[in-house]
Design the sequence.
C-alpha cells in the first residue's frame, strides 16, 4: 500500500494528516485549556504546528519503510 486510505461515509470523511491542515489545527493546539492533557506547552505559532505535522508524517514514513511497505 503506497498511501493512507481515505474512509468516507455519509457525514464524515477521514483522511491522512497534511501540512496544509496546520492552519485548521493551530487554533486549538495553541490553547492551554485544549492541550493541557497532551502537553504543558501549547504551540505559539503556525510554523510550530507545521513542524509538528511534518515530524509526525516523517515518523509514519519511517515506520512504513521499516515494515517493508
Sequence:
Amino acid at each position: 500500500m503506497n498511501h493512507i486510505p481515505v474512509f468516507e461515509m455519509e457525514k464524515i470523511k477521514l483522511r491522512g494528516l497534511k501540512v496544509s491542515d496546520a492552519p485548521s489545527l493551530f487554533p486549538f493546539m495553541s490553547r492551554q485549556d485544549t492541550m493541557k492533557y497532551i502537553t504543558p506547552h501549547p504551540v505559539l505559532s503556525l510554523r510550530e504546528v507545521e513542524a509538528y505535522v511534518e515530524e509526525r508524517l516523517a515518523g509514519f514514513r519511517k515506520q512504513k519503510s521499516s515494515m517493508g511497505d
User: Anything to note?
Assistant: Residues 17-66 form one domain. The mean pLDDT is 89. The first strand starts at residue 7 and ends at 8. Residues 17 and 56 are 9 Å apart (CA to CA).
